[in-house]
Amino acid sequence: MTSPRLWVAPDEAGLGRLAPTAALPGGKGAMALSWLQRVELVFFATAFVCGAVAAAALTRTQGSFSGSCPLYGVAALNGSSLALSRPSAPSLCYFVAGASGLLALYCLLLLLFWVYSSCIEDSHRGPVGLRIALAISAIAIFLVLVSACILRFGTSSLCKSIISLNITSCSDAQKTPWIPPGTALQFYSNLHNAETSSWVNLVLWCVVLVLQVVQWKSEATPYRPLERGDPVWSSETDALVGPRLSHS
């Protein structure tokens, strides 16, 4: 005995999609997310962690310098101690930490929204929502790239000024006393963690953009109704009325 076919409902764009299981007799609710979107959510969860780590590490570093931004800063010797003689504008660190934090918050909210929607409302992202997601992902890639470059070159500039003071490396400068006391606690480790998290975050957002483009391409596939000459049409009609006899 053959199982009954699922009814396929055409949507507004003319593309057929399976009707929700709850609408079928005796059906149970199920997640409407495709496997591509589920993979996308996994990358969003990882991007949230990376963005939060980058924002927290840079904020902690700026706080250890009493609110001054050490990126692109210049260090100087004061006796046997180090001091940040020329820090950068605080807005530079605010931008990097703010961009990373906002993108992390966006990932978290989006993750919670789709988990709730798939489990409770059984919703589906339409073409307009997908275009908006593509635009946001492109902006996110730009912001993360700029933030990662600022962290990379800003930390390198600070380390060059420290090494010019006959200090072996930035990691060794963490063990050197700074003025005022308590300044620059684990500054290089925090900056290194922020930079690494930003580069990983950039890769994650690029993968998310690729997944969204694949979904957009699949959604944009034009619908073509079946015609009599199509093999699928013939197989469907043969299953309903039986194969036609050829006339010699």
From TrEMBL:
<keyword id="KW-1133">Transmembrane helix</keyword>
<feature type="transmembrane region" description="Helical">
    <location>
        <begin position="128"/>
        <end position="151"/>
    </location>
</feature>
<dbReference type="GO" id="GO:0016607">
    <property type="term" value="C:nuclear speck"/>
</dbReference>
<protein>
    <submittedName>
        <fullName>Transmembrane protein 179B</fullName>
    </submittedName>
</protein>
<dbReference type="InterPro" id="IPR029776">
    <property type="entry name" value="TMEM179B"/>
</dbReference>
<comment type="similarity">
    <text>Belongs to the TMEM179 family.</text>
</comment>
<feature type="transmembrane region" description="Helical">
    <location>
        <begin position="92"/>
        <end position="116"/>
    </location>
</feature>
<keyword id="KW-0472">Membrane</keyword>
<dbReference type="Pfam" id="PF26158">
    <property type="entry name" value="Claudin_TMEM179-179B"/>
</dbReference>
<feature type="transmembrane region" description="Helical">
    <location>
        <begin position="41"/>
        <end position="59"/>
    </location>
</feature>
<keyword id="KW-0812">Transmembrane</keyword>
<feature type="transmembrane region" description="Helical">
    <location>
        <begin position="65"/>
        <end position="85"/>
    </location>
</feature>
<dbReference type="InterPro" id="IPR059010">
    <property type="entry name" value="TMEM179-179B"/>
</dbReference>
<dbReference type="GO" id="GO:0005730">
    <property type="term" value="C:nucleolus"/>
</dbReference>
